[in-house]
Specification:
The protein is α+β, with helices and mostly antiparallel strands and 178 residues long. Helices cover 28% and strands 22% of the residues. α1 (43-61) runs parallel beside α4.
């Protein structure tokens, strides 16, 4: 389990239209927002990433860099970017499932074709959303076992205004005895 205020796992991936992504080399003013999605086969992911694409400029105004991440290959990641007509959102691909598990993501096995007729990969990670500070420590984390009921990006943007204005600390950091 990842712990707020502690270092997150390494994350180095190829991207479809930008230089290679290395979380340790990101230089955001405030945070890097990592949105792990299931892959091209997931119609809910496309809808979710479409909303993120719309809000990337709002995150950037608040000093937050944004990256969508999946275990899809380059072709499938590019197809997802095309599907949502991405202009702002960066896409990283090829997430190793051991690395996904290090991030606390759940792993699912294929059930064949989805409702939109696209074959699921043999194994893939379920969704997760993380905000990482420039020093590589976890600020916010959310992982899911299902593609439904994900964190609302507009709420995150609004939360950032409060977080930044009040230097609000990461919460959930306590690991001592209960």
């Amino acid at each position: 389990m990842l712990i707020p205020r502690q270092a997150v796992p390494e994350l180095k991936l190829a991207t479809i239209a930008h230089d290679a992504f290395d979380l340790a080399s990101e230089c955001p003013q405030n945070f890097t927002l990592l949105v792990f999605y299931r892959g091209l086969h997931c119609p809910l992911c496309a809808k979710y990433l479409l909303e993120l694409e719309r809000l990337v400029p709002e995150f950037e105004k608040r000093g937050v860099t944004v990256m969508a991440v999946s275990s899809d290959n380059a072709e499938r990641a590019a197809a997802m970017a095309e599907k949502i007509k991405a202009r702002h959102l960066r896409f990283a691909y090829g997430l190793n499932l051991e690395n996904a598990r290090a991030w606390g993501l759940y792993i699912s096995a294929s059930r064949g074709k989805t409702s939109i007729g696209i074959e699921e990969p043999a194994l893939f990670s379920e969704p997760g959303v993380f905000m990482v500070r420039p020093d590589g420590t976890l600020y916010y984390g959310n992982v899911q076992t299902m593609p439904f009921a994900r964190p609302n990006f507009a709420d995150l943007v609004g939360g950032l205004d409060f977080i930044i204005a009040n230097d609000y600390p990461a919460r959930g950091e306590y690991t001592g005895p209960l």
